[in-house]
Amino acid sequence: MATYEPERTRNFYLLGDSQAEMVQLIATDQLFTRAMGGLLPEQPEQTIAQLHDVLDIGCGPGGWVLEMAYANPRLQARGIDVSQGMIDYANGLARANGLDNAQFHVANAIDPLDFPDGTFDLVNARYITGLLEAAAWPNALEEFVRVTRPAGVIRISENDLPISNTVAFAHLGGLISDALYETKRSFSSNGQLLSVTPALKRLLQDAGSQEVQQGVWFINFSAGKPAHADLCQRLSETYRLAQPFLIRTGVATPEAVEQTYQQMLSEMQSDDFCAGAFSLTVWGTKP
């Protein structure tokens, strides 16, 4: 397992270049894409038809880019990520699937992007809250706007943590919120919530994007719902992988985290388990 030293490595992945985290991110990415209704569900068909060059920020193991490249062979899809392991994995998947129009490069979203002004028709970023300190967002979004062509689209999707009616699930989510607050990646004033979604529209407007719009989507993964088994499995894996992070940041002891985790697994299988996950997509155009 890679050592978690983000201040030195500037890599905020919980497990660095872990194969386990890559596989988990691919599966979660596919689940969220389905739940959102597609890769760009809010964009008009005319806009999608005019895309030639797209960029995905914090692409991880490349899920969104690979799906875009497959669905739209005429466009060039690029992804950047701070993790060399993630990039190697994504490039391997692109080669294995014959996707010559998908390319991946190592870069950090908190640095100036190594692209000329107006390079891309669309710049996308999904679920990068855990990879950026809150203070880094304004400069990062200004770079997203800079590399977008005039009239091009800047698109950001984020979520706060899922909610439920059970004790351990809520407690474990609270510990994750606390840990992200301690590592300065939360927009919350006290660490109880991530609070990124209420800030997105203003952040994108302040970065220079115009005609900013937003759309909300929701997954009900309560017991008996179609999404229950799939999302519970994804969250179980995510929260298991997050345990070392919670321990390293000092928000809980190993024993307490494991006990809470096991209780959460039991709660998820209860007939009266109720839970939901909200996400927000915000998009605007470059003047």
Terminus-to-terminus distance:
45 Å
Total number of domains: 1
Structural class call reads alpha/beta
The radius of gyration computed from the alpha-carbon positions, rounded to a whole number of angstroms, is 19 Å
SSE run:
HHHEHEHEEHEEHHEHHE
Reading off the top of the CATH hierarchy, the class is best stated as Alpha Beta
Number of strands: 8
What is the CATH T-level topology? Rossmann fold
**Biggest sheet: strands, sense, closure?**
8 strands, mixed
Principal-axis shape equals globular
The low-confidence runs, each spanning 5 or more residues with pLDDT under 50, are 6-11
**Number of alpha- plus pi-helical segments:** 10
Mean of residue pLDDT? 91
Which superfamily, in CATH terms, is the homologous superfamily? Answer: Vaccinia Virus protein VP39
Amount of beta strand = 15-25%
Question: How would you describe this structure to a colleague?
Answer:
The chain has 287 residues and is an alpha/beta fold. The protein has one domain (6-285): Vaccinia Virus protein VP39 (Rossmann fold, 3-Layer(aba) Sandwich), CATH 3.40.50. 42% of the residues lie in helices and 21% in strands. The chain has ten helices and eight strands. The chain has helices at residues 6-9, 19-36, 45-49, 63-71, 84-96, 137-146, 167-182, 197-206, 228-248, 254-268, and strands at residues 53-57, 76-81, 102-106, 120-126, 148-159, 163-164, 210-220, 275-285. Strands 1, 2, 3, 4, 5, 6, 7 and 8 form an eight-stranded mixed β-sheet that branches. Helix 2 crosses helix 9, helix 7 crosses helix 9 and helix 7 (167-182) crosses helix 10. The radius of gyration is 19 Å and the shape is globular. The N and C termini lie far apart (45 Å). Mean pLDDT is 91; it is low at 6-11.
